[in-house]
Amino acid sequence: MTAVSQLAGRSTAVGYLTVESERLLDPAAYAPGTVLEPGEPLVSGEVVLDEFVAARTAWSAVVRAGDVLTIVDVGANQSGDCLIYSAENTAERYSVPDTIVGNGNVYLDTGSVLYSTEGRPLATVVGNEIARQDTIGGACSKESNTLRYGHHTFAEHGCRESFLSEASRYGLGVRDLTSNINWFMNVPVEPDGSLGIVDGMSAPGKRVAIRAERDVLVLVSNCPQMNNPCNDFNPTPLRMVVTRPGGAA
Amino acid sequence: MPVAITADEHETDTVYAARADARAQGAKVAEAMPYLPASSSPFVPAGVDPETLVWAETVAAGGYTHKAVARGTRLRLEDVSGEACAHLLVYNALEPWERINVADTQKIPWQAYLGAGHPLLSGDGRVLATIVSDDSGHHDAFCGTSTLERNLRRYGAGTADSAAPAGRELFTLAAAKHGLAPRDLAPSVSFFKGVQVQPDGALEWRGAAGAGAAVELVAELPLIVLIANVPHPIDPRPEYVSGLLRVHAWRSRPTAPDDPVWTVSPERTRAYLNTADYAGARGL
């Protein structure tokens, strides 16, 4: 059994603000017309972590039981690919099918419980400002990009690569990657089963918040995809704020 | 179920008697069992040369099976009574961290529902297996399999040795026999019980196609195949309902450029190209 605290990687969050935040929040660094709205946490309380995730990069943190992670879609329609592990036993991790079965729905919304591979709650969505949060679209990768868009995309970075880099800090590897959540991504399923990523329904500053039901390791890939609308063809930052309800605001 | 034999039917007071007693049991037949050699199967599928069979087995209701098979093996699963549900995980036998990726299996063909021609894709941009025939049309790639937690709640039991084994408990055993651990158990797909997604994202149970439905898959790479035959996790019936699953596999060939599925869409063409590229480089 592998617990995060026993791993070589970090047991607390490390920020990725090596990119200066004024450049990170400068609309001129993104596509023309970009509006950036850093927002505020959805659930008040003592702020125990507050970081921006630069476009195209990865992020991780251990979120303690009872703490709430708010993810802010700062620049609109930025897919935040997300994996969650039990911090005390990383072999127990987020499970798409158990979450779909447990909630009776393929989309996530306020009240959705994020279940583990053992069918136990890891986190609960306690606030959400867009419809149809996705958990069926999976993550992009160098390899799947060759299927979806052609072999000319093979040099491009993907979420699977970001997940692998970030997971490696905790001694986790390819066997530990599984199907994920895509916050702010829109994947409708048509009556004939046709399914795919279409234009997002988010806007600058839209948020989702999850409350950890146990100590969890959260990995996020701020999606670098440039071949479909999951990032509106304009990767922008995400803001991650962890609050401790009941603590000093 | 094993045939109940009481202790006083056995003479096992010496090693010689115990050996004779053990050997006297070998010719018995059970409802669920493997048939060896596979060519001796009492249920050889129509049109299959028995000499090409590499796997023949009837899997118990609530049971599991597993095998490593060669690239080009054709695998047939049959729902004998209409109550089987075959939960499937496949791995590249040479590098088992390459395994079925349900999200890519749905996303890359732009199709959520499994049927004839559908590729089972890995997360590495390759096809592990292709569904080559299907007369059921009742399958699912959304709901995975059952857990101990869920079965305890629904049926009051869920361990592998119980009367209501959960799929994940059985997959754990099947995987362990190939050196794989719970972290290797990715979301699975299931055959013979259908689920449809409503416009609001809710799940609609569609049940089974009936007795005798079958699907056939072809292994595009050497595979570790794990199968758990347990009720679908959203089967609404309050009792644990399962039925016999028949498994046959025989030597055939992987999908080739002259097969229609190779060119049915640009995504799939590139998936088969990636698979052939890998197989070629590995000398398969």
TrEMBL record, chain A:
Q: Per the database record, which ranges form the DUF1989 domain?
A: 53-217
| PANTHER family to which the protein is assigned, alphabetical | RE64534P
Name the record gives this protein: Urea carboxylase-associated family protein
Q: Mind telling me which Pfam families this protein's record contains?
A: DUF1989 (PF09347)
From TrEMBL, chain B:
Stretches that traverse the bilayer:
none
Q: Name one Pfam family in it.
A: DUF1989
The record's section on InterPro entries has: DUF1989 (IPR018959), UAAP1 (IPR017792)
Question: Where in this chain does the record put each DUF1989 domain?
Answer: 57-224
Which superkingdom does the taxonomy of this entry point to? Answer: Bacteria
Record protein name field:
Urea carboxylase-associated family protein
- What is the originating organism of this protein? Gryllotalpicola koreensis
